[in-house]
Write a structure and sequence with these properties.
Importin-beta_N, about 70% helix, single chain
């Protein structure tokens, strides 16, 4: 079948939807039936100067045909026409298809693309640059494509500026595409030479120079060898710094972008240049256009981020010597006085009409943010540099000065010690409360409320001894909740942090006498007509939730009054007219109300004084939640299921009466694996239901396990999504097994191979993994351990423990692999729990396996000496469980020699002694130890 690519592309831009759809189908058919001809035709169309109407779309489709990312391609010149999503492609498929093309075909395509770089149309050149980068990325990773690089470098000798500009842009795109791939150093040198040559001030064309600077930004990841060479580094830095002084604003901005990238990539190479960079950035901050000034500040924020990262590494590795820190963290401390002075100047450059949107960013905001980062690095040393500025400006008649003084104070609160801050806060608090009540400037009130929130975030309770009573603070904050939405939102935030400070205060809280007023005022805020502005309604409900969390047994009756109020409000949203223009607002409100009910359930449902009264509302709550699940809104499904999970946990086995109505929605959520957030919540609720219903979950387990086990067979469109789901599913296996015990037997032959396969892939020490991959590996390990633990405990009291024996060697192999890997204390405790469960459940059969594992002995001894008492306690329990198994094996079949050589009597004495030491003043056993003892007794 022949295809007229020009005609297809033209009809694909028709305003007639039927014609356009037919053209889309023709394009896909052409691609499937004749990929070489398809790519060659698109390349020819893109290179043809006489076809302006079709070449744009040809370039977009060509680029996407060589990309593995989904792309929205507008097939119509009409901006109102919806774009079409070109199919998502697997990266390996894209690479293989290109590499299988005939050499002559690929040579023609590349020739046409290179030809397009000389086009007089900028958009055509830019599209060709991106397509060439896709091709080069494919070929360079397979040791090809070097002729493309050579052709581009040759183009740098062209006289026409548009050709040089296009070549540099293409080199930049190539560097971006292959940023994770190894590149021959000779080619890196050639590319950098061409780029730096194009950046020089004597380059007469600004477009060429701009393209070169942007290309350098993308090429920095390859320049490690070059930055290690003093002469080459000096030349690169000289050219970049020179570009920051260009008369052209776009060039200055791009140069500062490069400086920011250099600061994070080659921080340790910057010492020689820091004085010059400070002068350059200070000049930009004080006199350049805002976009350039913002990037100049971003340079220092990037340096701060790097030094904070280094400080955290020192702390984690216990390198606390000041000389080491001073040696490796010099820049901020060396530039401190001048840098702080420059940043405080920016605080005086507020805009007359402040943009209060969440994503708003201006010079004053950037300066305050950077000042906060500086404070985190230098700690108490920031105080004498900032406080004179605060005192000088905080009482001035000019609102900008008052705002700057308060902002400076609020910005540094995350740095100094509590001892250093508390006296300053006690002095400043009175004037700040007064400013929040009386200052005529909305901007000053906004900044004051924000600063108070930061004060109460870092200093609260006994750390903040002030002459101002709690009543005075609350009076001002509650009054400010009636102010403009932006001020009221930050007043809610300040109260949120006050409440957060007393969540674990026990029965004594200075907020208790004011709970009634607080709740009433927050509810009034949620009903304001302008409550959607500045996220005010959301802030009010989040604050209300935190206030509920810090309630006590004595104040619980106040919060019980909230239950019917919130339920009535939720019912009102369900019965309201479903007007389209109000749908988004109603959905947001329903989510907030569900979240509030969830917190109330979690708090009041477990209090002895309120539990019985609270359970009287369970039927009404479930009715509301089920009505929300009946809606078509996925967000509401998430919020409703979270609240249902909390309610199930409180109601316990009696929750079974709701399962017939709930299960269809639960099953629907478990099928919705493409929506990761929704799926994750539904899987988590299954776990809650298992803990609540225990054996009563059994009638639903076949369907639930069918959905969970089909994970491997589903045609998931994204590998990343599938692997994110796995840890949740494995953990859910453990919850189900723990709930139904020996009835899990029929699922073992399906669940265990999945667990074993995942264990084989995750058990070994992770080397050269990205942070995301390392985090995922640990999540997967935790999910596997939780599954094994639940399965072992579920079978422990049954007469079918022998069916687990074939799986025991693999479980122990997985544990041995984990012992040798880098695992944190939380995973150590979980691994110890599984080791103890193995011994407790399989008893005699486990002893032989454990006897063969020298790793178990070493791991136990290491954990028994841990500084973490919970790790030590878990290790002690595991030893006791193994002792019992050893004793049982001796009784049943004679003494077994074990390298652990555990002395049962001494171990039991130590366990009893530790339990006595861990008892509270009233003789209560801590929760973890109690659960350990419960296991021990049941064993």
């Amino acid at each position: 079948m022949s295809f007229d690519i020009t005609q297809i592309l033209l009809t694909a831009q028709s305003a007639d939807g039927v014609i356009r759809k037919h053209a889309e189908e023709s394009l896909r058919q052409f691609q499937e039936e004749n990929l070489p001809g398809f790519l060659l035709s698109l390349s020819s169309e893109l290179a043809n100067e006489e076809k302006p109407e079709s070449r744009r779309l040809a370039g977009l489709i060509l680029k996407n045909s060589l990309d593995a990312k989904p792309m929205l391609v507008s097939l119509s010149l009409d901006p109102k026409q919806a774009p079409v999503r070109w199919p998502t492609q697997d990266r390996q498929d894209v690479i293989l298809r290109w590499l299988k093309l005939d050499v002559n075909t690929t040579a023609q395509i590349k020739k046409l693309l290179l030809q397009t770089l000389s086009s007089t149309v900028a958009s055509a050149r830019s599209t060709a640059s991106q397509v060439i980068a896709k091709v080069a990325a494919i070929e360079i990773t397979h040791f090809q494509g070097l002729e493309l690089i050579g052709s581009l470098l040759s183009s740098m000798h062209q006289i026409q500026p548009n050709v040089k500009q296009a070549a540099l842009e293409t080199l930049g795109y190539i560097c971006e595409e292959i940023s994770q791939e190894p590149v021959d150093q000779d080619h890196v040198n050639e590319i950098l030479t061409a780029i730096v040559h194009g950046m020089n001030a004597y380059e007469g064309n600004n477009d060429v120079r701009l393209a070169a600077i942007r290309a350098l930004y993308n090429a920095l990841g390859f320049a490690e060898v070059n930055f290690s060479n003093d002469m080459e580094r000096d030349h690169i830095m000289s050219v970049v710094c020179e570009a920051t002084k260009s008369p052209e604003m776009k060039i200055r901005l791009a140069a500062f972008d490069c400086l920011v990238a250099i600061s994070s990539t080659y921080y340790d190479k910057l010492a020689t240049y820091m004085q010059d960079i400070f002068d350059i950035t200070a000049k930009a901050v004080r006199g350049d256009e805002e976009s350039v000034a913002l990037q100049a500040i971003e340079f220092w924020s990037s340096v701060c981020d790097k030094e904070i990262e280094n400080l955290n590494e020192y702390s984690s590795e216990f390198f606390l010597f000041n000389d080491i820190i001073e040696q490796d963290l010099p820049f901020i401390k060396q530039a401190l006085p001048a840098l702080v002075a420059m940043l405080m100047e920016t605080l005086l450059k507020q805009e007359e009409v402040q943009d209060l949107d969440e994503g708003a960013w201006n010079l004053a905001m950037a300066g305050g943010s950077c000042l906060g980062l500086v404070a985190r690095i230098v700690g108490d040393d920031i105080v004498p540099l900032v406080m004179p500025f605060v005192k000088k400006n905080i009482t001035k008649s000019d609102w900008r000065q008052r705002d700057a003084g308060i902002c400076a104070f609020g910005s540094i609160l995350d740095g100094p010690s509590a001892d250093k801050l508390a006296p300053l806060v006690n002095i400043a608090l009175k004037s700040m409360l007064s400013a929040l009540m009386k200052d005529p400037s909305n901007q000053v009130k906004d900044t004051t409320a924000w600063t108070l929130g930061r004060i109460f975030k870092y200093l609260h309770g006994s750390a903040l001894e002030t002459s101002e009573s709690c009543q005075r603070i609350l009076t001002v904050l509650l009054h400010s909740m009636k102010d403009a939405p932006n001020v009221a939102e930050k007043a809610c935030g300040a109260l949120y942090f006050i409440a957060q400070g007393y969540v674990d205060a026990g029965s004594v809280s200075p907020l208790s006498p004011f709970f009634q007023d607080i709740v009433q005022n927050l509810l009034m805020v949620t009903k304001r007509e302008d409550a959607r502005e500045s996220r005010l309604r959301m802030a009010a409900y989040e604050t209300l939730n935190e206030v509920v969390r810090c309630s006590t047994e004595e104040t619980s009756p106040i919060f019980m009054q909230l239950v019917p109020v919130i339920m009535m409000e939720l019912r009102r949203t369900l019965e309201a007219d479903k007007l389209t223009d109000e749908r988004e607002e109603r959905t947001e409100l329903q989510g907030l109300l569900c979240g509030c009910l969830q917190v109330i359930i979690q708090k009041l449902g477990w209090m002895e004084t309120t539990k019985y009264s609270f359970l009287q509302y369970a039927d009404q709550m479930m009715d509301l939640f089920l009505r929300l699940l009946a809606s078509q809104n996925a967000t509401m499904h998430e919020e409703a299921m979270l609240a249902i999970g909390a309610l199930a946990y409180v109601v316990g086995p009696n929750f079974a009466k709701y399962m017939a109505q709930l299960y269809p929605y639960l099953e629907m959520g478990l099928r919705n694996f493409r929506e990761y957030q929704v799926y994750a919540i539904f899987v988590g609720v299954v776990g809650d239901l298992c803990m609540s219903l225990e054996g009563k979950i059994l009638p639903y387990c076949d369907d639930i396990m069918t959905q969970l086990l089909s994970l491997e067979d589903r045609d998931l469109f994204c590998f990343q999504l599938r692997r994110s789901i796995k840890p949740l599913v494995f953990s859910c296996f453990g919850d189900i097994a723990l709930a139904i015990g020996e009835n899990f037997e029929k699922y073992l032959i399906y669940a265990m191979p999945m667990l074993q396969s995942a264990a084989d892939n995750s058990g070994h020490r992770a080397i050269n993994l990205t942070d995301d991959d390392f985090a995922y590996t640990n999540q997967l390990r935790s999910g596997i351990l939780e599954a094994y633990s639940g399965i072992l405990q579920g079978f422990k009291s049954s007469h079918k423990t022998q069916i687990l024996i074939p799986y025991a060697p693999h479980i122990l192999e997985f544990l041995d692999a984990l012992y040798k890997a880098l695992i944190d204390d939380t995973m150590k405790r979980t691994a110890l729990g599984v080791l103890g469960d193995l011994a407790d459940t399989l008893v005699v059969h486990a002893v032989t396996l454990i006897n063969q594992s020298t790793s178990s002995k070493e791991f136990l001894e290491e954990c028994m000496a841990s500084d973490d008492p919970l790790v030590e306690e878990s290790a002690d329990w595991a030893r006791i469980a193994i002792c019992r198994a050893v004793k049982a094996s001796r009784v049943g079949g004679g003494a077994l020699a074990t390298p652990l050589q555990l002395h049962e009597e001494e171990t039991e004495k130590r366990g009893k002694r530790r339990r006595r030491e861990n008892k509270g003043e009233e003789g209560e056993v801590p929760q973890l130890l109690s659960s350990i003892l419960q296991r021990e007794v049941s064993g």
